[in-house]
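S1.2 Input.
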Amino acid sequence: MSKFSKVVLKKGKEESIRRFHPWIFSGAIDRIEGPVEEGDIVTVYASDDRFLGIGHSAIGSIAVRLFSFQDIEPDLKFWCSKFQSALDLRQRIGLITRKKTNVFRLIHGEGDGMPGLIVDFYNGTAVIQAHTVGMWIIRDLLAEALKSVLGVRLKAIYDKSAKTLPFKAAVEPKDGYLFGKQGKTEVMEDGNRFIVDWEEGQKTGFFVDQRENRKLLSEYAAGKDVLNMFCYTGGFSFSAMQGGANLVHSVDSSAKAIELTNKNVELNFPGDKRHEAFAADAFDFMKDMNNKYDLIILDPPAFAKHKNALGQALQGYKRLNSRALQQIRPGGILFTFSCSQVVSKTNFREAIFSAAAISKRNIRILHQLSQPGDHPINIYHPEGEYLKGLVVYVE
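S1.3 Output.
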């Protein structure tokens, strides 16, 4: 019998759990036996007292996130096995040994059976983001498991959870090192060099999830005049330049992002006059482009983080893309993305359809894009497919 408090579901509410979906919603719970606070480990049972799983409790509509469907002891050995399984996947798909690449995602939440946890690896530093109090509480245990599994590869572990934990959580997280210390550093992706600042930058310091899409962009960039909106650290800009773009303009509302983009461009293409960066609002910048660009990248931050913001987000995608489609040169190519989990592939495609209708341009889809292999999607948890992208040809 488990030592943890017991969550008992209402009759018939166990079916999704028996199909290995890791979320338990508050409305499915019949009763809780024993004291439970946010972040506590609990065991979950069906109404007939059959064991279903073990996970972290939470305040909110998702009341439990399961990290095991077996009645185990979540000790160091258990978490080491989780990290080893994730590392094995990255090795199998060639990321660990890929030449000229030393940055990848090691843990992708539910996709790696660890709901509420993100770990990105930057050339020796593992950056952790806990999205649940449960994962944050055991951060030191997770750090020990990381050190055990990664061994000499690992130089430092940085916890960057202060802005990712639920705002109602009764905790006071502070970002900082759990092991070692290695400030912003240089990493490499497909031969392009980047300065990554996990202490001050967005997310964990870099958008690892666009690696394969940046590579695809480079194949379309030769001879093109390119606009990279929401450029952040300039990843798509370097790929366009690597692919032989005629000129590349990078735009972001953050002056810090523009400064970092310029530094990264200089790292990879010193003295190259093809690139220019602008700190500006995206919609303002795109008002009067006058057919200036024949390849545009739209990779905005998440427009919707909650379902109640979905309608507004879809209007934002429609407005942004219609402006790009109206002003791109004839024969132009648009790479457009949504990283909002609550925006489905169908939602996003319909928003681009509406934008195309507004622009009155003939448009054809060339590619439908998603996240790379180090951001795996648990087949039992389709909600994990958060990144959607389309590459369209505009006549």
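S1.4 Remarks. The first strand starts at residue 5 and ends at 9.
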